[in-house]
Amino acid sequence: MDCVNVLLDGGKGGVESGLKNVSSHCSISEMDDYDLSKLLERPRLNIERQRSFDERSLSELSVGLARGLDHYESAYSPGRSALDTPASSARNSFEPHPMVADAWEALRRSLVHFRGQPVGTIAAYDHASEEVLNYDQVFVRDFVPSALAFLMNGEPDIVKNFLLKTLQLQGWEKRIDRFKLGEGAMPASFKVLHDPVRKTDTIVADFGESAIGRVAPIDSGFWWIILLRAYTKSTGDLSLAETPECQKGMRLILALCLSEGFDTFPTLLCADGCSMIDRRMGIYGYPIEIQSLFFMALRAALAMLKHDAEGKEFIERIVKRLHALSYHMRSYFWLDFQQLNDIYRYKTEEYSHTAVNKFNVIPDSIPDWVFDFMPTRGGYFIGNVSPARMDFRWFALGNCVAILSSLATPEQASAIMDLFEERWEELVGEMPLKICYPAIESHEWRIVTGCDPKNTRWSYHNGGSWPVLLWLLTAACIKTGRPQIARRAIDLAESRLLKDSWPEYYDGKLGRYIGKQARKYQTWSIAGYLVAKMMLEDPSHLGMISLEEDKQMKPVLKRSSSWTC
Ligand code: GLC
């Protein structure tokens, strides 16, 4: 596993040579310092990579880094032949899978233009579906895998356009009925309206006021920050992140989630349906998906905020919050065999700070399934922790992002991967990857979902299998040095996705059936596959979406006496 950890943030030497404009205040390059020392300390390099000289500068920075994988395909470089040929697949593998070309074609078909410029991709290009709903919009979260695919393919402009366009939308005054939303809120999605007569393009954005259930897209702002870092890492172009507009955009998002209130925990309190799971599914409270994204966005912002007067204040708040958040998550959300056994034996009604059972969880509330599900080897971050409530469900996105952001310690990260191996049938089955496990049914489904007919057991958000999650699984596999797990998952996806026309999700305990109401040509299923393929072919891509354990923060933290944990 060690050998691959060095891939994550790129090496300093590479970053320096890859950056067009190295500035003294951008800590992205500083963050990489210790990564390089790690690289030098751990020379477990097995395969020397064949690389081409025509690759983009960022790829060059990882020449020394991409050498750690035990198994991976060798590379060659015929260069780009046609305009639409995906550079990466043409360059990096001997025989690109036939699906790759189809996927690129479908991804390009989903492009959305605003005044002649590509600004995003629509959620689904499914003309057969009777109901369009809002699948013809550009969703912020859905665009992330598209953006990564374009970045990995050396096409950063669309990502820049998207970042700037959504930043403009953030600046709008946002109201729902008579209520004004926080200034930093980012939209869930936006739509470009083309007027063929007047030849004008206009944009309408949805901040939750049109979304089904009026749900708040808390994840949008976090993904925006994470994508800004990915763009910066990938292109070496620091100038975008350094613009006053981007700096302000970041500060506004941070102001929303770092404000002081009545909280007793460093986690972020959320309403149901606030993320990828955008319907009532019992994820209200402190859902793991948001906590992981919050942590990752805080770290990404820390690397990009300028140390000017306004930036400094946020930097200080971020550092404190990261410290408290990582402690809280690693201690209270983590579940493995030992921890489960401890909770099972918890005493209740303990008063004072010496309480072992801090949240007064009643052992009787532990669901039966978790005793069977928990292997001796492996563990995961549970879905939610709040007073007398532990949601023991396993959620894919939160756990993978915890690995990528290094919210998970290296031991926890490998335990999560162990769980994938030990519970392959339950979590992957015939189609990667279950959005959560297990499904809720019967009375519990009625109460928790409000009888939602779309979220019946083993369907959609309720234990359905989402191909988009393949890219997150692949990234987590590479980071933890287990690429063979990703390869196995990709093989499964390749046996079905194209044939089934890239569905949005699959149903059933094993994910064997195309989802009841799944859209076809769902863009993030397509882009997620491409990103997974490109990362496995060239693991150095991982650096744009992964953060190493932040050792630099520790000395700063030690100086404070106010933390008691
Ligand atoms: C569904 C998904 C959501 C996604 C949207 C567009 O609402 O739950 O995560 O962003 O479709 O694909």
TrEMBL record:
A Pfam entry, by short name: Glyco_hydro_100
Keyword Hydrolase: yes
EC number in record: 3.2.1.26
Reactions the enzyme catalyzes: Hydrolysis of terminal non-reducing beta-D-fructofuranoside residues in beta-D-fructofuranosides
Keywords linked to the UniProt accession: Carbohydrate metabolism, Glycosidase, Hydrolase
GO MF, one example: beta-fructofuranosidase activity
InterPro entries per the UniProt record, alphabetical: 6-hairpin_glycosidase_sf (IPR008928), 6hp_glycosidase-like_sf (IPR012341), Glyco_hydro_100 (IPR024746)
Enzymatic class: hydrolase
Role: Invertase that cleaves sucrose into glucose and fructose.
Family: Belongs to the glycosyl hydrolase 100 family.
PANTHER family: ALKALINE_NEUTRAL INVERTASE D-RELATED, PTHR31916
Protein name according to UniProt: Alkaline/neutral invertase
Species annotation: Salvia divinorum
Gene name of the record: CINV2
